[in-house]
Amino acid sequence: MTASTSRLSDFASKTGYRARLPDEQGHIGYSDTENATWRALMQRQLAIIEGRVCQQYLDGLERLALPEERIPQLAEVDRVLLAATGWQTAQVPALIPFDTFFDLLANRRFPVATFIRTPEEMDYLKEPDIFHEIFGHCPMLTDPSFAEFTATYGRLGLAASPRERGYLARLYWLTVEFGLVDTPAGRRIYGGGIISSPRETLHALSDTPEHLPFDPVEAMRTPYRIDILQPLYYVLDELTTLHDLARQDIMGMAHRAMALGMHEPRFEPAPRDGKASA
C-alpha cells in the first residue's frame, strides 16, 4: 500500500516530509535519489496496471506522458490538464487543512505535495506524496466525468459543516481514492489510492475484498482505515455515473446517511496511538 489522502482524515498528524520549493523559474531540482525513487515506483506500477485500470486512466496517462526517469515538474502536468479539463496542480505542504483542500478542488486545482517518499517507505506512508498525486490521480483528471465530480465535491465541502465533511470524506475515499468501475472489458480500477499502490492494485480485483454496487448514501455510511488494504470497494456501472452524481443532491444524500447512521466496520480498530480511521 502506498500513500493515502491522510489530509482527509487526520490533518493534525505529524510528518517528517516537507514539500520541495521551486526556484525563481518555478523549477524544482530533485536529487538523484529522489528521481531514482520515482523511477522505481513508475516501473513497478506500470508493470501491473495494464488490464487492471480503466481505459480513461490509460488514456490520461498517455496524454500526460509522464517521464519515467525523473520526477515531472508541475508545469508539465498543468499544460495537459488545462487543455483537457481546465484543471491544474497546486503545490502544497504534505498535509493541508480541510478548508484549503476543498477550496483548491472547487477551483479545479489538485493539491500536490512536492516531495517523494524515501526508499525506506516505498510501500506505504500516510502522507500523500507526489507519486501518489501525479501518477495515481492526475491521469483521471483528464476525464470530464471524473474532473467534474471532483470539482463539485470541492464546492460542496466548502459549504459543509464539520459533521457533513466527515460523510463527504467517506464518499471521496470510496470513489476518487478507492473506486472500481465495470467496463465492457471487465471490472477495472479508477481510484488513485489503488493505482499508486502495488499491493492494493492486486488486492482490489482479487477475491479477498467485498465488491458492492456503488450507492453514494451507503458509501458515506462506510467507515474506512487508511493504513490497511481495503476490505470493501464500491463499483460504478460506468464512469459517467460520477458525472450524473455531480448534478444530484449530494448533500441531501449526506443527510440521509446521517439519519441512517454508520455501518459496522469491516476491520479491527486502529492502533490507539494513531488516528487511522474515519
UniProtKB/TrEMBL annotation:
It catalyses: (6R)-L-erythro-5,6,7,8-tetrahydrobiopterin + L-phenylalanine + O2 = (4aS,6R)-4a-hydroxy-L-erythro-5,6,7,8-tetrahydrobiopterin + L-tyrosine. One of its GO terms (molecular function) is phenylalanine 4-monooxygenase activity. Residues 1-278 form the Biopterin-dependent aromatic amino acid hydroxylase family profile domain. SUPFAM superfamilies: Aromatic aminoacid monoxygenases, catalytic and oligomerization domains. Fe cation binds at residues 132, 137, 177. Keywords: Iron, Metal-binding, Monooxygenase, Oxidoreductase, Phenylalanine catabolism. GO terms for biological process: L-phenylalanine catabolic process. Its cofactor is Fe(2+). Pathway: Amino-acid degradation; L-phenylalanine degradation; acetoacetate and fumarate from L-phenylalanine: step 1/6. Pfam families: Biopterin_H (PF00351). Transmembrane segments: none annotated. Its EC number is 1.14.16.1. Belongs to the biopterin-dependent aromatic amino acid hydroxylase family. This is Phenylalanine-4-hydroxylase. The lineage of its organism: Bacteria, Pseudomonadati, Pseudomonadota, Gammaproteobacteria, Oceanospirillales.
